[in-house]
Amino acid sequence: MPEVPTQDRRPTPIVLDCDPGHDDAIALLLAVASRAIELRAVTTTFGNCSVGDATRNALRILTLAGATSVPVAKGASGSLAGTSELGNYVHGTSGLDGPELPEPAFAATDLTAVELIEQVLTVSAEPVTLVATGPITNVATVLQRGAVDLSKIGEIIFMGGSADRGNHTPTAEFNTYADPEALAVVLGCGLPVKMVGLNLTHQALATPKVVARMREMNHHVGRVAAEWMGFFGSSYRAIWEFDAPPVHDPCTVAALIRPELIQWRKCFVAVETAGEWTRGTTVVDLYDRYHRPANAEVAMTLDADAYWDLVLDAVDALGQAR
After folding, report:
1. Exactly one of 168, 219, 248, 291 is catalytic; which is it?
2. Cα–Cα distance for residue pair 187/173, rounded to 1 Å
3. CA separation, residue 311 to residues 32, 138, 219 (Å)
4. Strands, DSSP E only, in 68-203?
5. Is 248 known to be catalytic?
6. What CATH number belongs to 12-321?
7. In whole angstroms, what is the distance from residue 46 CA to residue 269 CA?
8. Of the candidates 1, 321, 18, 277, the residue with the CA atom closest to the CA atom of residue 160
C-alpha cells in the first residue's frame, strides 16, 4: 500500500524543477500521488527537450494525473553560459515520445520559473525542498539573484552527476554536462545539498517484471507508464546496451518519501567546467583525497525492490483514483 505519513510527520513541501522526459514523468506521478509530499509548484527547463516542449509535457502529465491545480512555470531555455544541450536522442522529438497523452487542461502561469520558485519560498511558513531533475539552471539563478531569504530552502536534492562514469559523455552525466556552471553555483551555496547520480539511479532499473506490473494495472495511468518505459527502454538498449532502462528521476522524490531506501555518503563534490574531455564531470571525493569540507550528501546504494514497490503503489493509487 502507498505510504501514509505518521501524525508526527508533516508532508514535505517541494518545488519540482524538471525537463519531462520519461523518468521525470514518473517522478511527477510519484510526487502527486504521495501523501508525504506537498507539491507546491512545477517549474521547467531545457534538457531532455526544449523548454517549450518540457512545459507542455509537464502540463500533460499533470492533466493525466488530475493535478491541474499545481502551478507550472516555464524556465530556462539554455544554460548560464548560453548553450542549450538537448537529450532528444533518448526521449524522442517531443521529449516524451510514446503513448498519446491528453492535451493540457490548464496553462502555465505568466511567471517565469525563477519567479514562481521565489514566490513559493516567500509565502511559505516552512522551508521548502527544491528537487531538480534536469539541468539545474533555474535553481542556480534563484541562488544567484538572492531576491528571497535562502534560509527558506530546506535542502536541494538533484538528479545529476555520478560517482562513477557518465552517460552523455564517458565521464559526464547529461544534466551536469548541460550546465556545469549552474551546478557549481549550487555546490558552493552552503545549503544542504543531496546528489542522486548515475551510480545510484542505475540501480533503479525498470525490468520486464516492473513494466509488467505497470501494464497489469487496471487503469490508463498504469498502461501509459508501461508504454513510457517501453520507449525509454528501447533508447537505452540502442544507445547504452542496457537490458532495462534506469528510471533516474523518481529516486529524488523517493528519497524524500522514504529516506531509508537510500544510503548516503557525505563528501566533497566539485564539477568540472573547463576540461577539454571532462566538462560536466562530477568529482566525488569519497575518500577525502582533497581534504576539503563535505558540501554534499551523495546517494550510494538503493533498496531497488522497495523503491519499485513505492513507485508502483503510488502510480496504481493515482490511477485508481482517476
Report:
1. 248
2. 16
3. 11, 26, 16
4. 72-73, 128-132, 153-159, 193-196
5. yes
6. 3.90.245.10
7. 24
8. 18
Pick from 200, 193, 309: which is nearest to 247 by CA? 200
83 touches 120 (CB < 8 A): no
Note the Cα 91 to chain centre separation in Å.
15
pLDDT tens-digit map of 270-318: 999 999 999 999 999 999 999 999 999 999 999 999 999 999 999 999 9
Which residues, including other chains, have CB under 8 Å from residue 19's CB and lie 6 or more apart? Answer: 44, 45, 46, 47, 48, 49, 51, 54, 87, 95, 133, 134, 135
Nearest residue to 277 (alpha-carbon basis) of 205, 177, 192 = 177
The verdict on pTM exceeding 0.85 is: yes
Alpha carbons 213 and 217: distance in angstroms, whole number: 7
C-alpha cell at 142: 534563484
Reading the block at residue 27, the C-alpha cell is: 517522478
Distance of CA 219 to the CA centre of its chain: 25
**Alpha-carbon distances of 116 from 25, 69, 96, 195, rounded to whole Å:** 20, 14, 24, 23
* Distance (Å) of CA 72 to CA 18, 23, 205, 227, 313: 11, 18, 29, 25, 25
Q: Break the chain into its structural domains and give their ranges.
A: 12-321
| pLDDT, tens only, 146-198 | 999 999 999 999 999 999 999 999 999 999 999 999 999 999 999 999 999 99
3-state DSSP assignment of residue 271: strand
Residues in the chain: 322
In this structure, what C-alpha cell is assigned to residue 253?
522524490
